Amino acid sequence: MKAIVLNLDSKEKISLTDVQESIIGPGEVRVKIKAAALNHRDEWSRQGLYPNLKSGIILGSDGAGVVSEVAKGVDTSWIGKEVIINASINWGDKQSVQGKNFEILGMPRNGTFAENVVVPVDRLYQKPDHLTWEEAAALPLAGLTAYRALTYQGQLEDDENVLITGFGGGVAQFAAQFALALGAKVSISSSSPDKIKKGLKMGASFGFDYTNPNWVDKAIEATQGGFDLIIDGAAGDSFNQLIQVCKPGGRIVFYGATRGNPGKLEARRIFWNQLKIMGSTMGSDKDFRKMIQLIEQKEIHPVIDQVFPLEKAIDAFDRMRAGEQMGKIILKP
Ligand SMILES: NC(=O)c1ccc[n+]([C@@H]2O[C@H](COP(=O)([O-])OP(=O)(O)OC[C@H]3O[C@@H](n4cnc5c(N)ncnc54)[C@H](OP(=O)(O)O)[C@@H]3O)[C@@H](O)[C@H]2O)c1
């Protein structure tokens, strides 16, 4: 079958390759992929930024498709079902944190950028009827990350003022949509005027350009004192600006560090203002189920940026690297 594999010796670091189908192990199923979606993780893998990367791994955490084969002993009624795949594997028993066997589909385990993928049967969820294949593929990793950051970690309450930073990002899109669906007053930030316009059209109350240092004063004025909750995936030196725009007693949840570690941290403002700063990573099976419920109840449609055939995966990865996307980038075998 055709797949996008990590090829660290090649110029582009990934290549479309003919690979052997994976063998189905106990408790596993084969899913014929209808659509897959990129996450920044795939591009970080391409850039060699994770330990133990090996050429030959099929990348891709997100996918949706049709079950074509099940291992001996697995319920055969799965065959022919339309499913989405939860990329969060072996979370473990605790809601508060993943266990030490936790892994993410698509490195080290072969992922979804292929014609077929083999996954444990307990990673399958029925595809919500209102979603297209592209929308269903867009959902799992970024949707789960956004949902847990807002709810379990962020403890979002309706009517609260929430800031979602870097609205162009995949997780940020979902965070904004979910926060709106949960009744919050949502503001967004972005480096792109076009993306800000789209966020306002989607229902955000305010949009701020985080590249303009004045945005901090503007945000405090617009919200009459700052945000109750901030969801961020960038970190870096601008993290101190988030500490400034967070209301006394407020919460900041960060799930990524696209801009690296902050050079310094305004510790005094954090303790004086009684801020809670939390980290969040993907989510438990309970978070995933609740996220799907919200998607179904509110008929939320993930925002799709562009759809590329598997053969054009390098263009899709380059688009993510350049940060040009607005929503999820999709690959179709
Ligand atoms: N912990 C987890 O479970 C988890 C899960 C998913 C992702 N992540 C991490 O979270 C980050 C985002 O992932 P993603 O897949 O959503 O990536 P993505 O779709 O590539 O989003 C990147 C976005 O970051 C925004 N950004 C860049 N610099 C910023 C800054 N200084 N302040 C605010 N926003 C800034 C940009 O938004 P604009 O274009 O609007 O300016 C850009 O579009 C990555 O670092 C990823 O590795 C972690």
How would you explain this protein's 3D organization?
The chain has 333 residues and is of the alpha/beta class. It has two domains: 169 residues, Medium-chain alcohol dehydrogenases, catalytic domain (Quinone Oxidoreductase, Chain A, domain 1, Alpha-Beta Complex), CATH 3.90.180; 135 residues, NAD(P)-binding Rossmann-like Domain (Rossmann fold), CATH 3.40.50.720. The chain has ten helices and 17 strands. The strands form four sheets. Strands 3, 4, 5, 8, 9, 16 and 17 form a seven-stranded mixed β-sheet that branches. Helix 6 packs parallel to helix 7. The longest helix is centred in the middle third of the chain and has 14 residues. NADP nicotinamide-adenine-dinucleotide phosphate (NAP) binds next to helix 1, helix 3, helix 4 and strand 11.
CATH class of the largest domain: Alpha Beta
Q: What is the overall silhouette?
A: globular
- What is the CATH superfamily classification of the largest domain? Medium-chain alcohol dehydrogenases, catalytic domain
Instruction: Report, as a whole number of angstroms, the end-to-end distance.
Output: 10 Å
- Beta percentage is 25-35%
> In terms of quaternary structure, what is this?
single chain
Q: Helix and strand succession?
A: EEEHEEEEEEHHEHEHEHEHEHEHEHE
Tell me the CATH topology of the largest domain: Quinone Oxidoreductase, Chain A, domain 1
Mean pLDDT over the residues: 97
Q: Based on DSSP secondary structure assignment, what is the total number of beta strands?
A: 17
Q: Structural class, from helix and strand content?
A: alpha/beta
Return the domain count: 2
> Helix segment count?
10
The percentage helix is 25-40%
CATH architectural group of the largest domain: Alpha-Beta Complex
The largest β sheet comes out as:
7 strands, mixed
Q: In terms of per-residue confidence, which ranges show pLDDT below 50 for 5 or more consecutive residues? A: none
Radius of gyration from the alpha-carbon trace, in angstroms: 20 Å
List of distinct ligands in this structure: NADP nicotinamide-adenine-dinucleotide phosphate
